[in-house]
Structures are given as C-alpha cells and as structure tokens.
Amino acid sequence: AVVSTQSGHYGRGNHYEFVKLDKDLARPGDLTESCSFPFEFLKVVKQYESYTGRNVRLRYFLRVTISRRLVDIIHEKELMVHQLSSYPETNSSLKMEVGIEDCLHIEFEYNRSKYHLNDVIVGKIYFILVRIKIKHMELSIIKRETTGSGPNTYNENEQINRYEIMDGAPVRGESIPIRLFLSAYDLTPTMKDVNKKFSVRYYLNLVLVDEEDRRYFKQQEITLWRKSPLSLKPENRGVVALESIQQNQVS
Predict the structure, then answer these.
(1) 3 - beta bridge partners?
(2) Is 149 buried (19+), middle (13-18) or exposed (0-12) by CB count in 10 A?
(3) 127: which residues sit within 8 A by CB, 6+ positions away?
(4) φ/ψ of residue 15, rounded to 5
(5) How many Cα atoms within 13 Å fall on the side-chain side of residue 10?
(6) Cα separations in angstroms, 140 against 40, 181, 203, 205
(7) How is 177-241 classified by DSSP, letter by letter?
C-alpha cells in the first residue's frame, strides 16, 4: 500500500510505501500455456482507509510481476479499503455563542459532534441580539486536507456544499432550524495524521451576510465516521490467471 502526496505549491510528488507483503507463486521456468496460481494473504493489517484527494492519494493494490530477462511484465489491481466503525461511546452536542459586541449575538446548537456518512445534522440557531441588517445566512461543509508537517504544512480547503438556511432579516428571539442530510454529498471519514503524512478534517461553516455584503462566519469541527453494516465477510484469497495478465499487458 502506498501514500502519494503532491505539494500544492510546486506540484512535486512523493510516494511512501507503508504496507508490503510478497509471495513467490512459481519457480523459475518457462510458461508455455495458460495457468493460474492461487494465493492467500492472512491477517493483512489495513489500518487506513483508501483515499483520493486533491494533493494526496492512499491506495492498496495487488501487483503481479513476471520476471523476464529483458523486460518484466507487471500488472496491478487496485483494492478499495473502508474503515468501518461502531457508534461512538461519547457523542455530545455542540453549543457555541458568537457575535459582535453590541451588534450581534447568536447561539447555535448541533445535536451531535460525530456523524456517520449517511447521517442527518440537526440543529438550531438562536438570535439573542440583532442590531445589524442581515441579508441572508448559509451553512456549508468545509473539507480541509492537510499534508506535510511543520513549516512545510499545506492546507487545501474544499467547500463541499452551500445550504441557505435563511433569507431576510432576523429579529431578536427568532430561532432557525437546521436539517442537513449528509448522504447527498461525497464525503469520507475524518482522517487524522495518517502515516504521519496527511489529515482530512471537516467543518461546519456558518456564514451571515449583511446588506453591505460583509460576511461574518464561524467554523466548528465535526467528526465523520463510516458506519459498519450488520454482517461482514472478510476475504483475503485470490487467484492469479496469467492468461488475463498477458492480455492486459499487450493491450
């Protein structure tokens, strides 16, 4: 398995191999006809989820190599790995108060801080003090992909969606409900310090826009996780068919 990173500044790529298992399938000799070789990798540790982002890619793959005198024949088959989780032991609600002194004071509340990928974010926004003319308010999900470390850290922000939750000026004491269905978006689980190469985090970004188009915003990090199905049947067995490999190599 390999982590491939690319600098957002210079476009130079690096590849880091973090899992590798080898198995000899046949002794040296001549192949004169189609044949297949069964193989099996037991207890393979796949601690990270497959991921493809803007500046980093984590991939698992099977590679078959036929060694020859001049040029080797190499064929790869990529595997998709998902990290499945159960319901978090602690999942408290999110509550925050934000505002501008003597102008704006709002309180927002989300029902949980951790959501599975098909979950629904439910919340409310309370206007405690409103002395500026708000034109509209929107909620978006921000995906932040971080690569590198220290002075070489690079952050790439991607706006996953933009959901308008209010159009018009609110009044003091008004409450705005929030209901956001995550299944409508292409999301991944939160990934922190993967192989010490990259992280992927998600934020709820609340934005208020006044009549002069000034923007006031507040971000709150949430944790996303992949829900485990009821039954799982892991399988690490396979068969290498050399006829298929040779055909793919020629084409």
Answers:
(1) 16, 58
(2) exposed
(3) 105, 106, 170, 171, 172, 173, 174, 175, 176
(4) -125, 130
(5) 5
(6) 45, 12, 8, 5
(7) EEEEEGGGS-----EEEETTTEEEEEEEEEEEEETT--EEEEEEEEEEEPBP-S------EEEEE
Closest by Cα among 123, 138, 154, 120 to 224: 120
Tell me the pLDDT tens digit for each residue of 155-201. Answer: 999 999 988 888 877 888 888 899 999 999 999 999 999 988 899 99
**Residue whose C-alpha is closest to residue 128's, from 173, 179, 184:** 173
121-137 pLDDT, tens digit per residue, is 999 989 888 888 888 88
- Maximum distance among all Cα pairs of the chain, rounded to whole angstroms: 85
What sign results for the dihedral spanned by CA atoms 243, 244, 246, 251?
positive
